[in-house]
Specification:
By secondary structure, the protein is of the alpha/beta class. The protein contains 13 helices and 15 strands. β6 and β7 form a beta hairpin. α11 runs parallel beside α13.
């Protein structure tokens, strides 16, 4: 029996989106594919309000591929990586594995990375790239990327800004030109609410010029190849996941109807309700004022068994997520992203209240 997913991803996928993937196959070098892919790119540009000096791409991959794209195609010599959770640490390690130098600016798990912390580090050494996580899925912390982007652009204009927004993009406000970032990317199994297998990335023109100067960019991770091929052929350089692109095309039509602001407000409403519930019965793991819009990480202050809760929730066709890694059982996470709405969140939290006997 299907369990409705309130985990931080993959998120719930509607039958409508699943049906989009059962169309007949087309050739990825055909006119039909060009129309499909260029249509998706144009919808992405409209929804994310991209100016002329930003470009969009969709890769057949998880969002993690873009860690390697940053490491292989963007970092020239040395990156400053902001790490305040498991996935931001992974971003930095991926850049190191690409043979580049990395310094970590670390904050305690549950705390946010602040602009002044970054300014202090950027002022002390030479870095060509700043890498950070917008929405740290392991802790439910939302880093202030707009404030960070504004500060870096003003004080360190030569530093390229690379942002992992895998669990934030769409649900939270993610307008690349307003953030001031040079590359920002996400996966489709989170707030885009389609199955895993695609990643969406936005890049500035100036970072493409940087990439042309970086040697050994690899093949699948070659940022220049991805965008040069699109400019010449309006297709992808390598075989794409066409069924998922059908679903993404449909999703973008629906997002444009709802509008960027409308989607954000829906997610904000779900987040505020969930956070209020969490503070009533437990406590939030994220630092006050830096709570995620798409996933709430709850401190398990009552010492309840999250594993047993999920077993009982599964009987009711629901699933939430335990704490990540060393935070297992100490925290639990509720994803409120994608197609979920406030009514669905209220229902899910009612079931947790009922199973755990929490005071109404």
């Amino acid at each position: 029996m299907h369990k409705r997913l309130l985990i931080p991803g993959p998120t719930e996928v509607s039958a409508e989106m699943l049906r989009e993937q059962v169309r007949f196959m087309i050739g990825h070098r055909s006119k039909e594919f060009t129309e499909l892919y260029t249509g998706i790119i144009e919808k992405l540009k409209r929804f994310f309000q991209l100016p002329n000096d930003y470009k969009a791409a969709v890769t057949t991959s998880s969002g993690t591929l873009w860690f390697d794209i940053v490491g292989r195609s963007i970092v020239k010599e040395k990156a400053l990586v902001c790490a305040n959770g498991a996935f931001s640490e992974r971003f930095g390690k991926a850049i190191e594995d690409c043979g580049k130098k990395v310094d970590f600016l670390k904050a305690e798990w549950g705390k946010a990375i602040k602009p002044d912390m970054i300014a202090e580090k950027l002022g002390s050494e030479e870095y060509d790239t700043l890498a950070l996580c917008h929405n740290e899925t392991s802790t439910g912390v939302r880093n202030p990327i707009y404030e960070i982007g504004k500060m870096v652009r003003r004080e360190y204009p030569s530093v390229m800004i690379a942002i992992d927004s895998i669990s934030g993009m769409v649900g939270d406000k993610t307008l690349p030109s307003e953030i001031g970032c040079d590359v920002i990317f996400a996966s489709t199994q989170k707030c885009f609410a389609i199955p895993p297998g695609l990643a969406v990335g936005f890049v500035s023109d100036r970072i493409l010029e940087r990439a042309r100067e970086v040697p050994n960019r690899g093949l699948y991770t070659n940022l220049v190849r991805i965008f040069d091929y699109y400019e010449k052929k309006h297709q992808t350089p390598f075989t794409p996941n066409i069924p998922l692109l059908y679903a993404l095309d449909k999703r973008m039509r629906l997002l444009l109807e709802e509008t960027h602001e409308g989607v954000y407000q829906r997610h904000k409403t779900m987040a505020e309700y969930t956070q209020k519930w969490a503070k009533k019965h437990f406590a939030l793991f994220a630092e006050s004022g830096y709570e995620s819009i798409t996933v709430t990480c709850v401190k398990n202050t009552l010492g309840k068994s999250v594993k047993e809760l999920n077993e009982k929730l599964e009987e009711r066709h629901l699933m939430i997520s335990n704490g990540y890694g060393r935070l297992a059982e100490q925290t639990f996470r509720i994803g409120h992203m994608g197609e979920w709405d406030l009514a669905g969140i209220k229902e899910a939290l009612w079931h947790i209240d009922d199973i755990w006997g929490l005071e109404k």
